[in-house]
Amino acid sequence: MWLFEQEGFDNALRISHVIVGIMWMGLLWFFNFVQVPAFAEMEAAARNNALDKLTWRALWWFRWAAMATVVFGLLIIAVFPDLYDGDYWGSTAGVTLLLGIIMGLVMAANVWMVIWPNQQIVIANARNVQAGGEANPDAAAAGRRALMASRQNMIFSLPLLVFMVGASHFYNVTHFEQFDLSAGMWLVYFLIGVAIIAVLELNALGRISGTGNGGLNVIYETHKNAMYTGFVLIAAFYVLAEIVLRA
Ligand code: HEM
């Protein structure tokens, strides 16, 4: 049966990867475009109830979808070593996919190591206040840390999708004739990409301009700013590819 052959299994993994990836990105965009603006307009009691009943559930699907996306993504590579060999990673599709994977891994780390722990503080506080307890003075700062990481993931999600889909559809042999890509050009593209990802991530963690407003943090101030930043990144990576990767 085709499904149990290498190629069939690879396709099943790709479909699984895309399904859980859509669930992850869908919830990420729901949090950014819908939940955060709605919470800003809701009364405290209603917001606390929503955090308790709605956000809590959404975060379960969100973090496990993130985990599953990473696992299926890595399995696609693991079951097809003859496709993802040294030549592949040295190609245009290889270097762009690699940057997409680095973004995806940083995003998954943001989910599990920043957003989830901080949201647990926010939700515990909401439940405590609902039960008549004292508000936790650290909850607002925890919410801000989670928000910045979430908006950073929103920013990464746009170029990440271009890298993922591009690997088979446009950063490939037909369009970029990439198999004679020089090691120097590969390195330039890769290092610029990693530098952009690192600066943005450090900024989102508050290591560059703190977790407050101002400075580079303007990109996290509204979900629209985060979205525009994501589209600017798509354009920047495309122009960089035209300059550096075009044979
Ligand atoms: C986090 C680590 C991730 C890894 C290791 C990973 C790995 C991969 C790999 C190896 C491919 C196949 C590329 C090819 O040769 O065509 C792929 C494709 C794809 N990935 Fe990811 N990915 C990750 C994250 C994501 C995320 C967050 C999404 C969001 C939805 C995503 C969506 C896709 C899509 C839509 C494709 C295209 C499928 C295809 O055309 O075959 N990936 N990914």
Write up this protein:
The protein is 79% helix and 0% strand. The protein has helices at 6-41, 44-79, 86-89, 92-130, 139-169, 173-176, 183-204, 223-244. It has one domain. The chain is built from eight helices and no strands. The longest helix has 39 residues, at 92-130. The protein is globular and about 65 Å long. It has 247 residues and is mainly alpha-helical. The mean pLDDT is 94. Protoporphyrin IX containing FE is lined by residues 14, 17-18, 21-22, 24-25, 69-70, 73-74, 76-77, 97, 101, 104-105, 108, 160-161, 164-165, 167-168. Protoporphyrin IX containing FE (HEM) binds at residues 14, 17-18, 21-22, 24-25, 69-70, 73-74, 76-77, 97, 101, 104-105, 108, 160-161, 164-165, 167-168.
